[in-house]
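Onboarding guide, step 5: your first structure request.
Type a short instruction followed by the sequence, for example:

Predict the 3D structure of this protein.
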Amino acid sequence: MCSLEKRGNLFILTLTGSDEHRLNPTLLDAIKSALHRVRSEATASSALITTAHGKFFSNGLDLDWAKSGDPEINPRIQLMGFKLRSIVKDLISLPLPTIAAVTGHASAAGMIFVVSHDYVVMRRDRGFLYMSELDVDLPIPPWATAVIRAKVGPAAALRDVLLRSEKLTAAEAAKLGIVESAHDGAEETVRAAVRLGEELLRRKWDGHVYGQIRMEMFSDLLRALDFSENHVASRL
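The system replies with structure tokens like these:
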């Protein structure tokens, strides 16, 4: 599912295995547990890198699992949405900088997970960022739209991500300011994230101050994250 490694004050959270890293309750709970450990073990100055093995960073929510529930209320999609929202809140409130090292495709909820980090570095030769909902006729809940709105700009970029379902390569995402830098291969992408993490650690910022400033920056988003998925579930 996932592993958490600590190198000094640098935490590395890895989605393990060669599958699509679909965000089902088991994986979401494992990520949540890892983030809880990061919060409890972080020192005054720490940083987090999140990455993944295989072709996919994450291909979104596990819709096959969700659709196997009651088609009228579908509590399973509500459950996964609740758990993902909780993880996004954690990433916004963690008392340390966060970096996503994207080594493969990140679609829909997978892209939401990626951009919830402070920095994104991405593999140039494989993978794309993709809000696929329009292409598969699924609505996007307001809280998820709020995440994209808070992390993607200007307006034309927001339009292309949400209203054209563009599949953004690393180079394209970098031009839009979504990605910090693009790199050749998975290993170099992770190395770039480590270099960035070490650079941030050298600043010796107080993590609690860092987290407080971030929460103030995204106060509107935090309010939006209190939304319920009920109306989205009814469409599945």
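Each response can be followed by summary notes, for example: Confidence is low (pLDDT under 50) at residues 231-236.
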